[in-house]
């Protein structure tokens, strides 16, 4: 598939937010408030530790990934977390995420500060898990804990 992978820009906020809504609904059956998601995506562009990448086919956004940074004192470097991974349903199993992943992995390889790429996936997303394993990612063995309601 002929895709253009590029860093997202502010004019992409609306489509990124709509895709994030779809992601939450499809994977966790959560209905996110669109205004909140638009605000969150928009604010990501003002942060130095957040970068969206999109995959386009014929100038249509067909996939996306957000990179956020975590400092690792154990590694004395950064871990890039891939978040908001979404591919439009009619473009899945066609290499869209693979193209996004390869682009991000290449950026990481030339940045000596980056020590690892990580993402989390809901346990019921078996297709996603298989995709990540195919790309050479492994189950890290970590369980993610969360405490909500702090806002």
Summed up:
This protein is of the alpha+beta class.
Question: Which key terms come to mind for this protein?
Answer:
151 residues; alpha+beta; 5-stranded mixed β-sheet; 4 helices; 5 strands; 33% helix; globular
Residue ranges: pLDDT <50 for 5 or more in a row? none
Q: What best-fitting shape do the alpha-carbon axes yield?
A: globular
Helical content class:
25-40%
Structural class: alpha+beta
Secondary-structure element order, as H and E? EHHEEEHEH
Strand ordering within the main sheet: 1-2-3-4-5
User: What is the helix tally?
Assistant: 4
The chain-level mean pLDDT equals 94
The rounded Rg comes to 15 Å
By DSSP, the count of extended strands is 5
Biggest β-sheet description = 5 strands, mixed
- Beta-sheet strand percentage? 25-35%
Distance from N terminus to C terminus (CA atoms, Å) equals 42 Å
Q: How would you name the oligomeric state of the polypeptide chains in this document?
A: single chain
Task: Draw up the topology in text.
Layout: E1 4-7, H1 13-28, H2 34-44, E2 50-57, E3 60-72, E4 77-87, H3 96-109, E5 114-119, H4 126-134
Parallel strand pairs: 4-5
Antiparallel strand pairs: 1-2, 2-3, 3-4
């Amino acid at each position: 598939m002929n895709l253009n992978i590029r860093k997202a820009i502010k004019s992409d906020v609306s489509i990124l937010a709509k895709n994030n809504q779809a992601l939450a609904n499809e994977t966790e059956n959560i209905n996110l408030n669109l205004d909140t998601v638009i605000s969150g995506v928009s604010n990501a562009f003002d942060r130095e530790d957040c970068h969206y990448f999109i995959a386009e086919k014929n100038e249509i956004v067909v996939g996306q990934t957000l990179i956020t940074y975590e400092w690792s004192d154990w590694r004395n470097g950064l871990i890039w977390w891939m978040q908001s991974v979404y591919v439009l349903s009619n473009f899945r199993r066609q290499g869209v995420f693979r193209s996004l992943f390869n682009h991000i992995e290449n950026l990481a390889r030339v940045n000596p500060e980056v020590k690892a790429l990580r993402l989390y996936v809901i346990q019921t997303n078996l297709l996603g898990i298989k995709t990540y394993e195919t790309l050479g990612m492994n189950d890290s063995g970590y369980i993610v804990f969360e405490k909500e309601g702090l806002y």
